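INTERNAL AUDIT FORM
Audit reference: QA-55
Scope: verify that the stored structure record matches its stored sequence.
Auditor: D.O.
Record contents follow.
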Amino acid sequence: MIPLSLISECTKNLASEHAQVVPISLFVAVLCLTLIIGHLFERNRWINESIVAIIIGIIAGIILLLISKGKSSRILTFNEELFFIYLLPPIIFNAGFQVKKKQFFHNFLTIMMFGVIGVFISTFVITCGSWWIFPKLNLLCLTAKDYLGEATIGTIFSATDTVCTLQVLHQDETPLLYSLVFGEGVVNDATSVVLFNAVQKLDVSKFSSKTFRLIGDFFYLFGLSTGLGVLAGLLTSYILKALCFGRHSSVREIALMILKAYLSYMLAELCDLSGIITVFFCGILMSHYAWYNMAETSRITTRHVFATMSFIAETFIFLYVGMDALDIEKWKMTKLSYGSLMGIYSSLILLILVGRAAFVFPLSAIANYTNTRASSDQASRITFRQQIIVWWAGLMRGAVSIALAFKQFTFSGVTSDPVNATMITNTIIVVLFSTLVFGFLTKPLIRYLLPHAATRKNIIHEEPGSQLEDLNLPLLSLEESAATNISRAKESLSMLIESPVFTIHHFWRRFDDAYMRPIFGGPHNNGSQC
């Protein structure tokens, strides 16, 4: 006969296991439902997948509130570590791996201006505006240290989310615009996180000349993070080429690429660098070298695996943001009046609009001026309508802002401070409003401004070869062929002086073909001998 104590213990263990399994199972079920409904709305004129995920998250949160009788709207507890360690790396790596290298590097300087200088300008505008407006709205508990030292509201709300716009644009129809929006989105997120961590170390009470080292330290960390990503990508490429993994097992070479990419991200975080920048450039280098050292079947598989992981992570994030908006505990802790809260929300949205405009239009003018002097090609000129779309694409806020706010104002996703709870709810409302309202208007706006440009609605069935074709392009590629660039470079010394971009491209192609590809792999040295 089985003792009752043993039965009781087994029952407790089973209940404990179910306590962990049930929430995860429910969330996965809701995630599957989101994918199905998102597919049904794929051709909708107004709604995109991000909006669908957030709306379903809100509906799921309402149902949970009703079931729990107003106690909780969450299946899982948000943890910024979950976001930064597990969800963000596959998204950024896939962005680097799938990037159109030709357009990205052709517009590299403009992208860096938008993604780096733009974040500094936006942070300054939002921080100063918050410092001036918040006390007038009875949010008096935030000190100068909160604004400029530990929290930096400006960096939290300067992190953009361009997913909604990228789901509408198509890189083959609007290559310049897609490249700018895509590239700035990645660099912006990386810059915001690095700047957030750097500003936290500032001591406002001892503002001195050392504070001005912030910019130098920022670019120092930016460079080191890029170098680490390049090193990880080259090392993976060399290992795949030297050991011929594909001859024995496609599974091993795919697993090695995934693990090395993740390892590069974690090493960057352990060294207090930017894991976002590291894993992004790691993805670019792997697509340029390592991809050619893999078996033919592995090449196709890796693209789909990385894209799938990124897609699931993005959907997971938007779904959770919708559910977390109804966290009743945070709303109960907020002690400000309804009028003050509405004033704070409106002020933050207005500051985001102004902060975005403060750098997009001036920097676009500078980019147009420099591009005109370097080349007479009008295709690289950012028109006023394109500038409006770039400005609009960066108005939406997403998971990076949420994660930074949770990192600053909570401990393991929980806070008991009314001011901290207010800042969390502020961030959630801004993210929801910007994603739902601005995202809702994105498709019609782009259709109005670019009536002749096709969107994803019209090009859903893209030829598989179009993606694979881009991987055959050189790492630094311009719109003209390599032969044209080389002939230009050889024509005269004056052409080299007047067009330095062609010179850089010419010497890089020679160096890449002569030294890099024989060692690390490439379209002409792709390891076929394995």
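Auditor finding: record pair retrieved intact. Residues 454-466, 478-482, 488-498 have pLDDT under 50 and may be disordered.
Action required: none
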